[in-house]
Amino acid sequence: MVFAVHRRLFAVIALLACCVPAAAEPPQRIASLNLCTDQMLMLLVEPSRIASVSFLAQRADSSVMYREAAALKANYGRAEEVFVLHPDLVLAGTFTARATVSILERLGKRVELFEPATTFDDIRAQLLRMGDLVEERAKAEALVAAFDEQVRLLERPQHRPLAAFYFANSYTSGRGTLPSSVLEAAGLRNLGAELGLEQTAALPLEVLVTSRPDLVVKGRTYDRPALAQEIFVHPALAYLDARSEEAVLPDTYMVCGTPHVLRAVQRLADIRRQLGSPAPRPVATRGSGSATTVR
Amino acid sequence: MSAAAAPVLEVSDLSVALGGREVIDALSCSLQAGTVVGLIGPNGSGKSTLLKAILSLLPYRGSIRFAGQDLAGMAAKARARCIAYLPQDGEVIWPIAVDDVVMLGRAPYRSGLAPPSEADSAAVEAALIAMDLVAVRKRSARMLSGGERSRVLMARALAQQTPLLLADEPTTGLDPAHQIGLMETFQAMAREGQTVLASLHDLALAAQWCDRLLLLHEGRIALAGTAQEVLTPAALKRVYGVEAYFGESRAGRVVVPIART
Amino acid sequence: MTERGRFFLLMALLTGLVVVLFVASLLIGPAGLGISASLSALFAADGDVVAIVMQEIRLPRAILGAAIGATLGLSGAAMQGYLRNPLAEPGLLGVSASASLGAVMAIYTGLSSSFPLALPLMALGGALVAVVFVRLLAGESATPISLILAGVAVSSLAGALTSLVLNLSPNPFAALEIVFWMLGSLKDRSMTHVWLSLPFMVVGWIMLAQVARALDALTLGEVTAASLGFKLSRVQALVVLGTAASVGAATAVAGAIGFIGLIVPHVLRPLVGSHPSRLLGASALGGAAVLLAADIAVRVIAPERDLKLGVLTALVGAPFFLWLIFKTRREMI
User: Most C CBs within 10 Å: which of B48, B57, B93, B109, as the mutation test of the C interface?
Assistant: First the structure.
């Protein structure tokens, strides 16, 4: 008897809990905790509807849209600072701020999670999903159409040189990563993928050297030193420079699956054209690093 | 032994300050070759300090001359060929074989990591035989009894083959047989022309085995001479604050402290 | 066979072991090069990729493995002999941790990028502070346990300051590199690191070799050693500076690698008749062999993972250390 009453009570509460948000208007106070959801959000809605973006969105060294983000309120992914903004929609990445996300969910906030995009199809799908969530479907479709048009215009070259990403601590991007998709789109082969590496994986320096890539795309170097960056000045890499082009590209264009990745694709495609066809390279002499550094 | 021979060691006007206090205060004395000299005196009278000053381990004022040569101007290695030292409570940290410990006494004669010379080996053999250690020569010096270990350390000092041996309370911790054995060794060394200066707390041993005694009191020599001359009731009362029983045995004078005064 | 003959046989065997492990270290790597091709590429003059891998990646790693291992073994033996304490070792006494702190300050402030010698010099300075501190504390009569406690304090403080410097660095990678400085690695070291550290290590080795006979004499205590003609102030200066120079330079390029200086002298001591002088050379060779073997093991066990050297040495060394404390407690207290 008592049990039945409790069950009925529980059902009522459950009904209330599930049905209140469903009746809500388009979200007007959207908080984003993740650099990538930040940028998609800024592409789709007016700044007035954005309650907060992550602090990374405002930093030039991590965000493509730091100028747009500058006027917005920044958060550091902490539950209470987000909660007091009274957001009606919280956007987060599946890998970011797990603890914060679970607290906000328990407090009854509507949280939507986005996986990291690794392919151009992911980019399209996530833009459309985001468009639905913020009720800007038309804007999202327009962005996807423009993106498709630019992808269609990309060159599909006969000769595809071998390129390798080389990040701090000798990591590279293997299969199933956005940078790998970017390389493919730029008409380059990805060494990490060809070596069978999955995700972001260690690429031993000696494997990089013996693979003789045509292009090494180094990760960014911070002004302040760290051992992780010493790999970029390893003498073995300097010898390799004589036989391979080297490009430095801001990571910011490849961190998030937004249409901005096309700027990375175009830059890499430019470098590929400079590499040219597999014409005879200049004779490699050790130490004569005549590398083409592109920033 | 002629009284006119130059003393092995001549200490003049020696002063040593430790922590602002004059532990040795304008002390003068001399040691004749071929004698066993007992350095006696109460705790804190400066016995160990005097021995360390002679080893040049402490800064001092005054002069210490070895066979007429000023020790202050002597290189450490040359000094180590003149004066050997037998510490109180000698230790052997690592489990080194007995004959290797004795070989350490040859350090002043060896250079670099060269193998031992024939003279080195001969000195070690002689010291092992003298201290009756041949049977245990390959045993670890840490695994020996206290008496055996003190013989090992004595053999180490013998192997140094110096004209002068300084021994800091060498009989402390030894049973009577080993004490007498050690004093007999000192006497045997003296017969060979070597000189031994040993600090002693046991007045009976000092009286029986030393050719001369130096009685130290508050950093000065209170009395110097034979046991008869030094170990007087008045001196013992003044310096040690004790009353003693005096007797005669077939080995000579017997002094046994019996009460405080 | 004479004792001297046995010692030379031991040294010959250890040398052979070091040579074998050195060559093995050169032959192990992810690039999977052929044995004869890679060994001949070591001496090739052109810029062939195999030559680059061998000369610029594997050779410095093998050289540093041997030199740093030798430094740790030798300095462990020298510190044990000098402090007359079987638990003395650069890692346990905080010398490595302080050297790490010096190196971290040189690197992460950017000082070493404008003045490369700042790296070994500041690591040397850090090591020197720790050795002098330990020496002051040891004085005439420190028990093994009080030395170890002092080492714990020095290590903890240096570790905390290292962590602080790394956390304050604006470079996001810096904070993760605490692991390198506390556990050590030879991954992707280059000839630059060899040139920066090897000269200091060699100078340190020469200094420590000078005290061999004095360490033998110190077996009988400081006063006896002095009476045998050894100048204790000179011995102290050589041990302190030799340890600081060699351990400082080693730590500057490979981080703090523990326990080699403890285990190697202990295992070898009975084989050299416990002579501190003979233990120096034997421990240097033994340390080189152990570190080369550990560095081969981290590459074979987990080639993808960048396993730290200190993890392996601690897995073997820490239980050994506990056993040693147990044994020392029985013997010395």
Answer: B93
